[in-house]
Write a structure and sequence with these properties.
The complex is a heterodimer of chains A (138) and B (89).
Chain A: H1 3-9, E1 13-18, H2 21-35, E2 41-45, H3 56-66, E3 72-76, H4 79-93, E4 98-100, H5 105-117, H6 122-131
Parallel strand pairs in A: 1-2, 1-3, 3-4
Helix pairs in contact in A: 2-5, 5-6
Chain B: E1 7-10, H1 19-29, E2 35-40, E3 43-46, H2 50-55, E4 63-69, H3 73-86
Antiparallel strand pairs in B: 1-4, 2-3, 2-4
Helix pairs in contact in B: 1-3
Classes of the chains: A alpha/beta (138), B alpha+beta (89).
Chain lengths: 138, 89
């Protein structure tokens, strides 16, 4: 196992769930640029055929890609995206190490990604995302 | 525990405290136990909060005021000042 791979395996994963493919992918790119490529930040956005929406399959696949053993923090944009993730987690797809956080989408993703890249644990990464609600922009 | 005295350090002229450089700064701060703040443009931010540091809007050449409070304050200030000086885009 090479060192890069091992370090990557020690970090909490991030999943970004949006109604929009572009929004999820754009935010993943932004968060990766800030936090660095070591953190797995996986977008899950859009419905079938490029429509707006959120599908179970997309979210489950993104969580699987992000989960390297240290837990996953999931952020969702609005309404039914949140409900989709909640429903998935309540139906036995998590033993507590997949955490849906109540956080602003952009700020929460950036805060979580940077905390993860610093090697922080799941609880701390999740808390940083939720505390982003109180961060002032101006 | 008394706060240490302020340390002033200037960002390299071509490096704003945004995106990757801000994350590098915050990650350095997170290695220490002390309470750490960074001031710029009349605002003060928790040096361990990426969102607070980004909100400073510190552009290249800005002088930052670093302050630390805690048992490892001197080492933290030394490391943060060195980090700022070495930042690159």
């Amino acid at each position: 196992m090479d060192i890069t791979f091992r370090e990557r395996n020690e970090l909490v994963g991030i999943v970004l769930v949006s109604h929009s493919f572009e929004l999820a992918h754009g935010l993943a790119a932004l968060a990766s640029q800030v936090a660095g490529a070591e953190v797995r930040i996986e977008p899950a956005g859009g419905g079938p055929d490029g429509s707006l929406g959120t599908t179970d399959d997309t979210v489950v696949a993104a969580i699987a890609r992000a989960d390297v053993g240290q837990g996953v923090v999931v952020l969702a944009d609005l309404g039914s995206s949140v409900l989709t993730v909640r429903h998935l987690l309540e139906n036995g797809n998590s033993n507590g190490h997949i955490r849906l956080v109540d956080a602003p989408f952009v700020e929460g993703a950036i805060a979580a990604a940077v905390m993860s890249s610093a090697g922080q644990e799941l609880d701390d990464v999740a808390r940083a995302a939720e505390e982003a609600r109180d961060a002032r922009k101006l | 525990m008394p706060a240490s005295s302020d340390v002033l350090v200037t960002l390299p002229g071509n490096v704003a405290l945004h995106a990757r450089p801000a994350a590098t700064f915050v990650k350095t701060a997170m290695k220490f136990r002390s309470r750490l703040t960074v001031g710029a443009n009349g605002k003060t931010a928790d040096a361990k909060s990426i969102l607070a540091v980004l909100a400073l809007g510190a552009v290249g050449g800005t002088t930052l005021t670093l302050q630390a409070e805690g048992e490892d304050a001197p080492a933290a200030l030394e490391a943060l000042a060195a980090c700022v000086t070495a930042l690159s885009e």
